[in-house]
TrEMBL record:
Species of the source: Nocardioides humilatus
Domain of life: Bacteria
Biological classification of the source: Bacteria, Bacillati, Actinomycetota, Actinomycetes, Propionibacteriales
Protein name: Alanine racemase
Pfam families: Ala_racemase_N (PF01168)
Entry's Gene Ontology molecular function annotations: catalytic activity
Residue stretches making up the Alanine racemase N-terminal domain: 17-164
């Protein structure tokens, strides 16, 4: 009855170990929906990597709210990627020693250290992403603030780089020059989205820095062949041309079958972008051929016998209706069909690690 993620456990674990080996100091990122696996499961897997002897001492979560999901499943440090702000509630003192705060504004640095003089912090430097962070001059001023708070534990500088678009190394060197100029004892760089080659070059060029790559997608989802998503066929109804169905009482444009399958808006199943052919002329041509997308049926992420199928109407909360034109093989209730999902936006009912 469910939208299921089936994981080839041996293959997945071997991929996790390969990525961990290739990236010493790796900081696995476990945030949001846990890349489809849940944050808790990723925390346990991070512990497993550390137990297997890989160089993993910190796990990154996205928000302060996620700390509780990982703290009992992972024994090491927990970096919070969303920068600290004054409205963040104080941490449970039992956890405070394990948490590393990201600080992206000077005012926050002073306020956090006034409230928690021994806080562990990473200073975030702005990058071409322009999401959060301090400019070079502010990093330098941060050094001044830190000298007024000698109990603070500076754990390095964080750079959040855009997704692979050519070479990041020029930008990283510029930003590191600022970090060195700030003269506040930065010796570790926490980075995202560098390629293996870029990381190697960086390690060679900045031998006295520890480079800590934060990796989510490439680690958890890097071997798609280890993952398989299926939905269950919950119901099958034959329809004739003109029969009405669904919340909006649409009519079937031709004979075929309606399939009710598991997976709906609550799982993150959404309408696909319309087919590439969106020009009026292309649509007219499809209409002339009797194509179903021309009568308003939209491509779904479900496929049967390798062919992507159309939604009969927009997905419901927990199930979706598909239209299967006459002539296609009709699956039976209980059969599994393939679904293509965006893992970072999907909540599975069931995760089976086989
Ligand atoms: C999410 C995130 C990452 C990990 O990104 P992936 O593309 O999943 O590897 C790294 N750094 C920061 C700041 C993030 O928010």
């Amino acid at each position: 009855m469910s939208l299921t993620l089936t994981v080839d456990g041996t293959r997945w674990r071997s991929h996790l170990e390969t990525v961990a080996d290739a990236n010493p100091g790796i900081v696995p990122v476990a945030k949001g929906n846990g890349y489809g696996f849940t944050v808790g499961r990723l925390a346990r897997k991070t512990q497993w990597l550390a137990d297997r002897g890989h160089d993993v001492t910190a796990l990154a979560v996205g928000t302060y709210g996620e700390i509780a999901e990982v703290a009992t499943r992972w024994e090491g440090d927990i970096v919070v990627l969303t920068p600290w702000r004054p409205f963040i509630e104080p941490l449970d003192p039992a956890l405070a020693k394990r948490v590393i705060h990201t600080v992206s504004r000077l005012v926050d640095l002073d306020e956090l250290l006034t409230a928690s003089p021994q806080a562990r912090i990473v200073l975030e430097r702005t990058t071409s992403m322009r999401r959060h962070g301090m400019e070079g001059r502010e990093l330098w001023e941060a050094g001044e603030v830190l000298r007024r708070h000698p109990g603070a534990r500076l754990e390095g500088v964080a750079l959040h780089l855009p997704l692979q678009q050519g070479n990041h190394l020029g930008e990283v060197s510029r930003l590191l020059t600022d970090a060195i100029a700030a003269d506040c004892g930065i010796d570790t760089v926490w980075v995202s989205h560098l390629t293996g080659a870029e990381l190697t070059t960086l390690r060679e060029q900045y031998g006295d820095f520890t480079i800590r790559p934060r990796i989510g997608t490439q680690l958890w989802l890097g071997d798609r062949g280890a993952l398989h998503v299926t939905a269950t066929v919950l119901d099958v109804h034959p329809v004739e041309k003109g029969d009405s169905f669904g919340y909006r009482a649409r009519t079937a444009p031709k004979s075929g079958h309606l399939l009710v399958v598991s997976g709906g808006t609550a799982h993150g199943i959404g309408l696909e972008a319309p087919t590439g052919e969106s020009s009026i002329k292309a649509r007219a041509a499809t209409l002339a051929r009797g194509g179903l997308d021309a009568v308003g049926f939209v491509r779904s992420p479900y496929s049967i016998d390798g062919k992507q199928r159309l939604f009969a109407e927009p997905p419901h909360m927990q199930a979706s209706m598909l239209f299967l034109p006459h002539g296609a093989r009709v699956p039976a209730v209980g059969d599994m069909i393939d679904v293509r999902v965006r893992y970072t936006a999907t909540a599975f009912d069931k995760i089976v690690i086989a």
